[in-house]
């Protein structure tokens, strides 16, 4: 599996550093970095042989390049790109072939490499890495309410100029669309109200599956937000897909394409009218529209409410007797060994458990979920 979408070199250095510090086992590190064990062994071996220099990507290019693109061909590709700056490599190659059929033009991939080497194709903006907490495996369900897929469909302005952010919730097993709400933003308050109504009306799912955007995830410790913390209190697992991998929530993305085509082109005059469109779409999607994945049946014919009822209050969590239990203060810190240690502002007012797993090495838990590791000497929590 690939490294996260940060600098590959940075990820390898961090991987080796964490392994040397002994905070995690090799298996744990490979799982957290999303790579296979053979890949982990490879980079550890390269570090042992060449230090941090050995972690750099080694060129696979041959010493000599007998098939290198001739200079005049490369110049023609660059000139065509400058004349048509919005054209991609394949369109440029076809254009040049049509005008100069006597010349042997390289493959589109080679044209793209030439353009990139000369700075005519901008690098993609790198995404910040997100910790896979609690993480997500393949989307496999055998019954309703095991996993609800959630997302904010891309925002758009309604006719009155107000931004509309549709929050959608769908049962993964039956494709039953539980909610499609037109919200003014992705703020916590609006999403919390939607999920509160759903949980009270339909019960609790076993898991919620989302991307890494707000308000579902953050860049803080273990990616926690106030919303995902609330789900953990309700014993709902939060599955987070990998950054840049929408296909890991593919059935939800497929529903979004249909929703966009049938309700937002063009947008309604205002939020109220847009919500009316969403409600009509949800009724048709659930009750009338046959689904090939369901053998031609409708979602409403297969979905049933969850038997897990939303509690009026969540009871306090009892940590094992060998755990040190600390309360996170209003600044996101705890008291540990007569000093203050920052953990997470999201956990303000919550109790966490600390288990010593090796000499001077502690695992930090919120309820039964591992938040990260603490090294006494460095006095820093690593998520």
Summarize the structure.
The protein is an alpha+beta fold and 383 residues long. The chain is built from ten helices and 13 strands.
The run of helices and strands is HHHHHHEEEEHEHEHHEEEEEEE
Question: Which segments are poorly predicted (pLDDT under 50) over 5 or more consecutive residues?
Answer: 1-5, 125-134
Whole-number total of structural domains:
4
The CATH topology of the largest domain turns out to be Nucleotidyltransferase, domain 5
Main sheet specs: 6 strands, mixed
Cα separation of the termini: 20 Å
* Structural class by SSE content: alpha+beta
Strand content: 15-25%
Helix fraction by DSSP (H/I, runs of at least 4) = 25-40%
The coarse overall form would be flat
Tally of contiguous helical segments? 10
Number of strands: 13
């Amino acid at each position: 599996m690939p490294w996260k979408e940060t600098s590959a070199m940075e990820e390898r250095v961090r991987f080796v550093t964490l392994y040397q510090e002994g905070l995690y086992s090799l298996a744990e590190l490979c799982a957290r970095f999303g790579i296979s064990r053979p890949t982990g062994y490879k980079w550890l071996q390269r570090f042992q042989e060449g230090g941090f220099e050995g972690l750099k990507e080694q060129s696979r290019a041959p010493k000599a390049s007998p098939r290198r693109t001739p200079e005049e061909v490369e110049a023609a590709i660059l000139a065509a790109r400058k004349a048509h700056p919005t054209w991609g490599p394949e369109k440029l190659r076809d254009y040049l072939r049509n005008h100069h059929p006597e010349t042997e033009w390289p493959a589109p991939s080679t044209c793209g490499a030439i353009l990139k080497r000369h700075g005519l194709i901008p690098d993609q903006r790198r995404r910040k890495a997100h910790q896979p907490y609690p993480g997500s495996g393949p989307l496999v369900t055998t019954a309703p309410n095991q996993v609800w897929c959630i997302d904010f469909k891309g925002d758009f302005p309604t006719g009155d100029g107000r931004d509309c952010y549709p929050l959608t919730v769908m049962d993964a097993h039956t494709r039953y669309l539980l909610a499609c709400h037109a919200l003014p933003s992705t703020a916590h308050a609006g999403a919390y109200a939607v999920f509160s109504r759903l949980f009270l009306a339909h019960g609790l799912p076993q898991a919620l599956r989302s991307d890494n955007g707000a308000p579902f995830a953050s860049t803080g410790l273990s990616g926690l937000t106030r919303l995902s913390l609330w789900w953990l209190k309700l014993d709902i697992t939060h599955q987070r897909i990998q950054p840049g991998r929408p296909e890991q929530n593919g059935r939800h993305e497929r529903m979004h394409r249909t929703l966009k085509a049938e309700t937002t082109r063009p947008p309604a005059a205002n939020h109220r009218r847009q919500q009316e469109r969403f409600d009509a779409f949800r009724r048709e999607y659930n009750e009338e529209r046959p689904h090939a994945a369901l053998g031609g049946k409708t979602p409403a014919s297969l979905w049933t409410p969850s038997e897990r009822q939303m509690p009026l209050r969540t009871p306090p969590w009892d940590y094992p007797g060998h755990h040190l239990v600390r309360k996170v203060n209003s600044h996101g810190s705890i008291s540990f060994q007569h000093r203050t240690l920052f953990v997470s502002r999201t956990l303000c007012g919550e109790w966490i458990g600390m288990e010593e797993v090796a000499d001077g090495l502690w695992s930090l838990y919120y309820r039964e979920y591992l938040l990260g590791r603490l090294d006494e000497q460095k006095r820093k929590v690593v998520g």
